[in-house]
Amino acid sequence: MQNSESKDGQRLAVVRFVDAIAVRLEGYAEGAVDGWHTAEEMVNQLRCEDLCYSQPTITSGLHPPMKDHFAEAMYASTLNVATSLIGLAVLPLCERLSWWRRSGIAPCSRLFNAHANALVIGPGGLATLPQLRVGMTILAPHARYPSHRHPSRELYIVMSEGEWRCGDSAWWSPGMGGVSYTPSNAMHSMRALHGPLLAIWCALDS
Question: Nearest 5°: phi and psi at 42?
Fold first, then answer.
């Protein structure tokens, strides 16, 4: 069980993380052609007073070699002006998160040990909001996340170099600090290039 000082430290870390995400989404909403309305709705969720904190039990940490890939991507994110605010806010949360593999991926496949996901805001995370989930995905170099779709609208904040594809579009790179928008039920995927790909995703349930 966490003591009061540990709980206070976790809450402060979550608040700083939420604020950093909100700042980036506010910037995206100001200049975006697609997804600006979704970004505004997400910011309203992040800025509301409905954030409920929790102290979940850590069920699993990052498996090798993803721990090293995550550390590499995090280090790069703190040095880049476009990602440093969020990167520095993520650091205090790293040891408090549980990581999991996407379901349906065979243990014998290359992707099984080349990716990991963690939930920061949402059921089982460090806090919850009524309609918004915020998490992270890390991919090993040259790994591709499976194409998938879901009812939630989604914005990815790109913390390291990688490429995205949505629907029938070509692969494209938002760049570090860039944002990729996925409409509801649109098929989408992402892939790492020569280095690990770290992305923070925000999923809004309508």
Answer: -65, -45
